[in-house]
Amino acid sequence: MSRSQEPAENDSAKPARPRKAREPQPRPRVLDSLEGSAGQQEPHPPAPPAESAELTAAHYTHPVRRLARRVAQTVFFRGMVNRTITRTNLVDPAAYGVKGTCVVVANHSSHLDAPLVMSGVPHYISRDLATGVAADYFFTAWHKKFFTQLVFNAFPVDRRGEGANRGLSKKLLAAGVPLLIFPEGTRSKTGKMAPFQIGAASLALSTQVPVVPVALIGAHEAMPRGANWPRRGRPPVVVAVGAPLRARSNENAIGFNERIEAAVRALYAANRHHIRD
Predict the structure, then answer these.
(1) How many domains does the chain have?
(2) pLDDT in tens, the chain (277 residues)
């Protein structure tokens, strides 16, 4: 028998190699408190693009933009965010009494934070809630700018405090637009909370609007900094909305900022037990 006539080996007869079962990743334990180091922060953020200073308050209150935002949020929040996590929403009854404009503040450790807050606060606040975002990151490319403005009603924040858009936040509050600000200035690398910068407290004090504190519990463990998608298994997250705070008579921005930070930490500690490890 010539070599060309030799029977070929039947590959289908070879036993298939058993696939190794993928070991489930252990779910990280949710932090018991926000005390501790948040990791090294960015010491000198870059300058934002000049075009970020061209926005006006009318951009955030236009009825067509409001309708488009409502549709986009319904798709994004319900269709993606709420299907990838298991959330518990807790709202202090006093928060429903905020009928005017306000400043919402929260701890910041995940890209989940903004959608969690915006879908967790009372509707009167969330309807036009504008999220402060780093202008040097979210306003540098058209697709990031378009997405954050469409879904989060984003307004640019110059993290150096030197930009031409410094007065935009006051104009928005004067126009009746509530603001969402993350006073840490950037996402925590460890889940622990960095000291609050004074900007949000100073803004609320100068405009005489209340501050609504929010604690996000489990967001860092669900989608830590650097992750592009939440962990598998719909990890648990708690959104705890506290009672509004107002500056006391003769209280300066430093003292008000300390009270706001303490309120967020207290909300975290009081509601941590809603997540079972």
Answers:
(1) 1
(2) 444 455 555 555 555 666 655 555 667 788 777 777 776 555 555 555 555 556 777 888 888 988 998 898 888 887 778 888 999 999 999 999 998 899 999 999 888 999 999 999 999 999 899 988 877 777 777 788 888 888 888 887 776 655 556 678 888 999 999 999 999 888 888 888 899 999 999 999 999 999 999 999 999 988 888 888 888 889 999 999 999 999 999 999 999 999 999 999 999 999 999 988 6
Q: Nearest 5 degrees, angle CA 227-CA 200-CA 150? A: 50
- Whether the Cβ atoms of residue 178 and residue 103 lie closer than 8 Å to each other: yes
| φ/ψ of residue 247, rounded to 5 | -65, 135
CA distance 107 to 86: 19
Domain extent for 62: 54-274
**Residue 30 falls inside a structural domain:** no
Contact 120, 89 (CB under 8 A): yes
> Residue 203: inside a domain, yes or no?
yes
Tokens of 59: 């951009």
Q: In angstroms, rounded to a whole number, what is the distance separating the alpha carbons of residues 180 and 152?
A: 10
The token duo for 214 is 């929010």
pTM of the model: 0.81
Please give the single-letter amino acid code of residue 205. L
Distances, alpha carbon 212 to alpha carbons 163, 164, 187, 196, in Å: 26, 27, 19, 15
Q: For 2-25, b where at least 16 C-beta lie within 10 A, e where not — what string?
A: eeeeeeeeeeeeeeeeeeeeeeee
CATH number for the domain harbouring residue 210: 3.40.1130.10
- Is the residue at 221 inside a domain? yes
Q: Is residue 205 situated within a structural domain?
A: yes
